[in-house]
Amino acid sequence: MYVSRAVESIRADPIEGESVALALTTTDDADPETVAAAVEDRGGTVERHLQFDDLAVSVPHDRVDAICDIDGLAAVETTDAIAITTTEATDEDVEFDG
Fold it and tell me: Where do the Putative peptidase inhibitor domain residues begin and end (predicted)?
C-alpha cells in the first residue's frame, strides 16, 4: 500500500488535538462500505464518497496510524494531494503570472 510522505510524517509525529483530511484509495476488490465502517470504528469521519469507490475522510492525527491499517486500501494521501475542487475553489487557488 502507498502512504504519502505527508501521511507518514503525521504517523511518526502526530499533533495532539489536530485532525487531517485524507483521501483513501480502495483496492479493486474492497467493499467501500466496509472500508467506511472501519474508518468510523477507528475514530474517523467519512466526509464524501469519491469516484472509483474511494473515500475522503477526516481523522484526528493520533488515529492516522489506525486508518492506515485498514484492509482494502491501496493508498492513503492527504486530500491536498488529489483534486477535490469545484469551479469556485479553483478560482480562489489559481494565480496567474504575467
Answer: 1-83
Q: What pTM was estimated for this model as a whole?
A: 0.80
Residue 92 included in any domain: no
Residues in the chain: 98
Instruction: Please answer whether residues 96 and 55 qualify as being in contact, where contact means their C-beta atoms are separated by less than 8 angstroms.
Output: no
User: What CATH number is associated with residue 35?
Assistant: 3.30.70.2980
Angstrom CA distances, 96 to 82, 88, 93, stand at 21, 16, 10
Find out whether 39 and 55 touch, Cβ atoms under 8 Å: yes
